[in-house]
Specification:
The chain has a single domain, classed as Growth Hormone, Chain: A. It is 80% helix and 0% strand. It contains 16 helices and no strands.
Length: 403
Amino acid sequence: MPSKLRWGIAALLFASTTINYIDRQTFSVLAPHLQTEFHWSNSDFALIVIAFRIAYAFGQTASGRFLDRLGTRRGLLYMVGWYSLAAMVTSLATGLKSFAAMRFLLGCGESGNWPGAAKTVAEWFPHRERGWAVAIYDSGSAIGGAIAPVLVLWLYTSFGTWRPAFLITGSLGLLWMLAWWRLYPKGGGPYRQDESPAQRAPMRSLLNMRKTWGIILGRSLTDPVWFFITDWFAVYLVAKGFRLEDTIAGFWVPFLAADFGNFAGGGFSSWLIARGWPVVRARKLVVVVGGIGMAMLGATVGLQGFAGIVALFAVATFCYAALSTMMLALAADLYPSGSVASVSGMSGTGAGIGTIVSTFLIGAVSDRYSFEPVLLAASCVPLVAVILVLWLVNETPRNSRAA
């Protein structure tokens, strides 16, 4: 297959992730205004976030298996269509229950993005290029997170209400569907393997592997830190005494830092592999550095200045993104293409469960105490994740000749 085609597919994966995060972040950016209009506490806000997280968490295992059976071309098309419509319908919400229901539907659809993207990379890219490919599509989360505040607040101020923001951002996915269906070949990529039911590993067999649990636990303990930032950053800044409208200049910095982190992690590991490093060892080195860097988030506890807070959040998101890129790449490295989406989906479910628990605790702790205990915990948990990944993921990748 021509090189331009596979990098074009990577660009479409980046676009789907960007749109995915714009749709997701629309609610978070509008949260302070919605909290005022509907008189929600932080605990109320947490319930709506949890509704999304429940669907997103358990949906990833289901969507991963769905994508392994249906294939990436049709599977991703259906998932993007689902969450785009769910995002648009959110414009009709009228209160706590309806917002929770709409966010649940959004989570069901968005759950397929990462398993589908991981499967696509496994089918189209050799080992030495997968770090870059994962960095491209995963960086869409940071770009989407950076675009959302500017776009959504502009829509809010332009229309004088929040409803058009959900309708307009949700419609972006419909445009993506047209491009995906036109570009993606029916036969799949050159690294696609036999995906018949006989060659697809049962879920029980996958769960009996140490490396599967290393990937699941690694994501379960690090993704909640990222989602704390994406879901709560605006609320946290307001709690620190900043006006949301005055923070736009710096609000996007942690998300931009995450974008650089994706490429730093993916590029550095690919550079090591190209120079003869074993694939898994190269991925693990980035995981270690990323986990240590995420611990810097705890230093924000003693800061009051906006610039210092933003800088430390940026360090944490940069390091998280580098680590996250490796966790996503490992699924493609260690499993045949017929099981990649399933493993990626299970790790996403673990990450989602961890995020649900952390979201509940963040709402309760921040209402009763402050965000300081949350920040301290968020700086320690990634170090545990690093230890578990080093211990459990110790196998060589499949198809090393393709590296």
